[in-house]
Amino acid sequence: MKYFKMSDFDSKDAPGSGANMRLGTVLKLDDARIMFGKAIVVTSGFRTPEYSETLKRRGYQVAKKSAHLSGYAVDIRPKEGLEADLTKWAAFLDALWKAGFRRFGIMGGAVHVDDDPGKVSPAIWRYNTTNNTVWAMAQNWFEKKAK
Predict the structure, then answer these.
(1) Please, are residues 115 and 95 in contact by the beta-carbon 8 Å criterion?
(2) Is 125 in a helix, a strand, or coil?
(3) pLDDT tens-digit profile of 54-98?
(4) Which of 95, 73, 75 is nearest to 25 (CA)?
(5) Cα 43 from Cα 127, distance rounded (Å)
(6) How far apart are CA 21 and CA 38, in angstroms?
(7) pLDDT tens per residue across span 92-134
(8) What distance in Å separates the CA atoms of residue 54 and residue 57, rounded to the nearest whole number?
């Protein structure tokens, strides 16, 4: 990998656990970074079941069979942020699509992507933190890509 270290994907409660990430997922993310042309921050990579439970207790939306638990998922954002800049959002999503991701969870200022072969693909969903304007743009973007 050119832009990431396996420790970037560590569960917050388990140093070294980033080694549980699927190589294909990590390589796609590296490709997305190249295509996006700007730094990408991993906000969550591999998760232990215990850390997933901690997130649930804190009120985060966490899927029971989250792709983070099997190393297929990452939550990411550009280093400079996205805010409600629809042009940045579209460029970021385009890079992720070109890299091969087909599952997108749109958050307030970040994106969940995964390539879990056991989940429906392509797919897009929103979180309770998603800006309505960003969500409308992301749905439109996705409809064009998924045709």
Answers:
(1) no
(2) strand
(3) 999 998 888 889 999 999 999 999 999 888 899 999 999 999 999
(4) 73
(5) 15
(6) 22
(7) 999 999 999 999 999 999 999 999 999 999 999 999 989 999 9
(8) 5
7-60 tens-digit pLDDT: 999 999 999 999 999 999 999 999 999 999 999 999 999 999 999 999 999 988
Whole-model pTM: value is 0.94
Residues 6+ apart with CB under 8 A from 59: none
Characterize the bridge pairing of strands 111-114 and 123-126. Answer: unpaired
Q: Which residues pair with 125 in a beta bridge?
A: 105
- What single letter denotes the amino acid at residue 138? A
Which helix (DSSP H) or strand (DSSP E) does residue 16 occupy?
none
Task: Please state the separation of Cα 116 from the chain's center in Å.
Answer: 12
The partner residues of 75 in beta bridges, in order of sequence, read 44, 112
